[in-house]
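Agenda item 2: S-adenosyl-L-homocysteine complex prediction
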Amino acid sequence: MNSLLNYTKDELSNIFQPSFRAKQIFQWIYQKGVDEFDEMKNISKELRNTLKDKYTLNPLKIIDVETSQDGSKKYLFALHDNLTIESVLLPMKQEQRDENGKLIHHTRYTICISSQVGCKIGCAFCLTAKDGFKRNLSVSEIVAQVLQIKKDNNIASNRKVNIVFMGMGEPLDNLDNVAKSIKIFNDSDGLSISTRRQTISTSGLSHQIKKLGEMNLGVLLAISLHAVDDKLREELMPINKAYNIESIIKAVKEFPIDTRKKVMFEYLVIRDLNDDIKSAKKLVKLLGDIKAKVNLIYFNPYPMSEFKRPIKKDMLNFQKYLLDHKITCTIRESKGLDISAACGQLYEKNRKAL
Ligand code: SAH
Ligand code: SF4
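Presented output:
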């Protein structure tokens, strides 16, 4: 049966008249977090019965949760066809001063979500790619990941979270459903998550980056670059044959982005492959006049992986070179390593378990 989570508020207002019904339904689902139609108290019994006959609410079933020592939590969800996807909740402790200058501790949540079951792109270093592509996620399956994780952790519905499309799959290969989900997350009668808190990470499908830009959603962009010359990038990411580095840089330059924000370039550092200063130099040149920031990621090895984790000294030298050349550069702490919950690290463990 079709889930009501597949619809934006505009779409709902075309289905249910008068149009304020859509607003009410949205508030029940996203703000009050109801699990049953009968809990929608201000909606007539007649309409509730129609809803029950035609629609479902939550399309996901939690089948496993693993908590890491650092507090991150990995969720395994079953879909209606028994396929599974994973999402991760990443809490980040922050210190802030209140108006009296007193130090207060504050937790910021980021939820890393999947957009497909498997992935077509086939990157050599990525576990998601190993089992091929199964199918796109529906809008409801994307949206429910955030809804369920917020509920399961008692995160108040009006509490802002960040969303990153960095779980399983290539979000720009499922652009229509991803774009609709972004609008639903953003709706002020729903979770009200600003599009500036939502990041799409892509392997660099240039034509789709262009399309996403034309949609003008205000969403942030992260590019999984990982290599600075086409030869190595092709080896790591076969998609580079279709969309090379130059085409990606061009698409990024044309992408509309909030003037206060930067495009994130993710650079997976692999020992003896792309961890040298020569690569850092090329990266600086490549990013030239783009408002960019770089996120260096430690390659996270898995059993039988052909690549190696870089050594810390090379990672720090690489970072220093970028910082010295005025490029914001962070090193991604491998959150949740003990439960393989680092984004892009999902899947394989459970494939074995099922
Ligand atoms: N398909 C999209 C989004 C999902 S992957 C993309 O590729 O951008 C999210 C991130 O995890 C990507 O930057 C990916 O390169 C990274 N990743 C994949 N395998 C990894 C591994 N073994 N160790 C560390 N990061 C990895
Ligand atoms: Fe797909 Fe991203 Fe994995 Fe590449 S890194 S195979 S694009 S999920």
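Discussion summary: Confidence is low (pLDDT under 50) at residues 347-354.
Owner for follow-up: CH.
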